[in-house]
Amino acid sequence: MIELPIAHAGHWIASLLYLVPLVIVVAMLGFSSLRDRRAEAAEAAAAPSPDAAPDEHAAP
Amino acid sequence: MIRRRLLAGLLAAVATLAALPQAALAHGIVGRADLPIPQWLFGWAATVVLVVSFVGLAVLWPRPRLEQTAERRIASVPKLLDPLCGAIGVALFAIFVYGGFAGAQDAATNVGPTFVFVIFWVGLVMVSALFGDVFAAFNPWRAIARAAAAIAKVGRGPLPEPMPYPPALGRWPAAAGIVCFVWIEVVYPDRGDPSKLAVLALGYAAVQLVGMSLYGIAPWTRYGDAFSAYYGMFARISPLRWERGSLYARAPLSGLTSLDAVPGTVALLCAMIGTTSFDGFSAGPAWGEIAPRMTDSLRNIGFSQSTSLEIAFTIGLIVVVSLVAGLFQLGVRGMRSASHVDLTAEQLAARFAHSLAPIALAYVVAHYFSLLFVNGQAFGYLVSDPLGSGANVFGTAKVTVDYGWIPATTIWYVQVAALVIGHVAGLILAHDRALVTFADGRAATRSQYWMLAVMIAFTSLGLWLLSAANS
User: Fold this and answer.
1) Which residue of B has its CA nearest to A33?
2) Which ipTM score applies to this complex?
3) Which tens digits make up the pLDDT trace of B262-288?
C-alpha cells in the first residue's frame, strides 16, 4: 500500500513549529547584516579618498 | 498602522496555530502533563527569553565580568581527604567489578548497570556542576596510578620522566571516549549485562593506566581520560574549586573562562551535546521511522538484523554529533563574517567553545532529570543488595520505586527551565568573551548575532527532542 506523505502530516507539521522562531531570527539577522554591509559601503564611498586631488576652494 | 496590522496578524496566526495542532499532538505528553499551552509554544517562549536576554546583555553588560573575576579561599581541606577519597573510589570500582562477575546477571537486581548509567553518568554531572570537580578526588584510576607511583618511588627512587603529552592529541581521546561510552549506553545490546560492563570497565582502567604511565598522571587525567574531562568541564560551572588543601569560591560559570581550548575541546563539547541529543532522538517517533528503513537497507546488503540495528544506531549517533558540531561551526563562521576579526574560524571556535558547556549541562539535566530522580530510586534497594543475592546490608532492600513521585508536568517544566537557563548562561559566556575579543561593545554585540541563532537552534532542538521522546 502506498502511504501518502500527508497521512502523518500532523506529526511533522507540529515538529516544524519548533523551527519557526529560528527561521524568524535568522531572517532578521540576515536582513540586519545586509543593512550593516550596505551602510558600511555607503560610509566608505562617502569618505574622501586619501589619494583624491586637493580641493581648489580649500582655504590656504 | 502597518505595524499594528502586522502585530494583529501575528497574534491571530499564533492563536490559530495554538488551536489547530491539538489533534497533531495527540501523541504528545499533553494528556499526561497537564500543560496550559502546546509544547511547541514553549519553544517560542524560550526564544523570546533568549532574545530578551541578548538585548539585556548588550545594554546592561558593557564590560567583561566573568573573564576578570577572582576566586577566594574559603576553607582549608585536610590533606588526608584526597587519598581517602581516592581509596573510596578504588573500593567502589572494585565492588562494581566484583559485583559484575559474582552478582546476578540481571540489570534489575545487580547494582552495576544502575550505578554506571544513572548514579555515575547522570548524578555525578549534577554533583560536579554544584560542588566542583568531585570526580577528580574519587577517580579510581588516578588513585591507583598515584599509589603505584608513590610505592615505586620509595622502592626504586625517582621514576623516569613521562613523555610530553602530544599537543595535537589534546582532548580528542576524551571526545572519543565519551562517544564510545554513549555508544555502549544507547547502541550496545549487552549494556545491561553486569559482567560485560565489568570487563569494559577493566579495559577502560587499563587504557587509563597505560596513558598515565606514558604521559604522566596529571596531563593524561586532564586531557585523555574521558570521564575526568567530562566531569571537569561541568565542574568549571560550579562556584567551588577544590585544590589540594584548599577550597576556593568563585562566580558561577567563571571557571569556564580559563578553559584551555586545546585541540579536541570543541569536539568534546559537541560530543557531550550530540550524544545526549541522539539519546533523546532515538527515543522519538522520527527515529522510529528512520531506523527501520536503514535497518532494512543494511539487511538487504547482507547484515543480520541485530548488526543492522547496531550499524543504524551508530550512524545516527555520529550524524547527530556531526550536526551539533556543524551548527556550532556555522555560528562561529557567521560571527567571523559579522565582526571582520583577524582570527581564523578555528581560533574563534576555540575562544568560544566554553559557551557550549552550560548547554551540555542543560541537555543532561533536561534529558536525564527523570531518569535520575525516578529510576535512580532503584539504587535505594540495590545498595542493600548489590549482587542480587538476597542480602539487606543497609536495611533498604525492600524499598520500591515510586514512578509517580514527580508529576509529568513538573518534569516538563524542569526540562524547559534547564534548557532556557543553560542557553542564557551560554549567551552570557559568549557575550563576556566577545567583549574581550572584539574592539568595542557594538562590535561584540554584532558578533554575537549568529551565536544567538545557534543558541535558539539548540534550544528548539532540545525542546523538540524532549517533546518527541515524551510522546
Assistant:
1) B338
2) 0.71
3) 999 999 999 999 999 999 889 888 888
